[in-house]
Design goal:
single chain; 160 residues; alpha+beta; 2 domains; two-stranded antiparallel ribbon; 3 helices; 6 strands
């Protein structure tokens, strides 16, 4: 889609959508065109400000680029994925393939969650310099938040 319009007199003018994007950036807001496709479906994470949106973009790029260029991370920053449910489904498919001899089906694989001690501080999901033992099967994830509850570490349970 071209955001510039060529006028009859040969001059170039901006479309209203491009003007809206420029105005949003000048107000430190995330342009709507960066968050939604033309049908209105969300294609980006929603954040209140442009700075946090750009920081999220950099952090997401960091995780995906390291995974692509270096190696599979021992723990995944789940909130850094655009589609975390898709990632978890892919993890179930991977486990199913590992048990091809037993003829497991995807529907038979259940999620098992073990909460480990806090080892990854911060909101950016970076794990460089942390000692994390990867799982034999499945994945470790980090970067989750609780609302309306807290985790009791000693009893390994939720509390109000």
């Amino acid at each position: 889609m071209n955001d510039m319009v060529l006028a009859i007199d040969g001059s170039i003018s901006m479309t209203p959508e491009l003007v809206d994007c420029i105005n949003a950036i000048s107000d430190f807001r995330v342009p709507k065109k960066w968050q939604f496709d033309p049908t209105g479906v969300e294609i980006s994470w929603l954040t209140p400000g442009l700075a946090s949106w750009l920081k999220g973009l950099v952090d997401r790029h960091h995780q995906l680029n390291n995974w692509l260029t270096k190696e599979r991370p021992p723990s995944f920053w789940l909130t850094g994925f655009f589609n975390p449910q898709g990632f978890l489904t892919a993890m179930k498919q991977e486990v199913t393939r590992c048990h091809k001899a037993e003829q497991w089906s995807l529907d038979e694989v259940d999620y098992k969650t073990d909460v480990l001690k806090d080892i990854i501080p911060g909101d950016d999901g970076r794990i460089e310099g942390k000692q994390i033992n990867p799982m034999n099967e499945g994945v470790l994830i980090h970067g989750l938040y609780l609302e309306g509850a807290q985790w009791h570490k000693n009893d390994k349970r939720f509390e109000e």
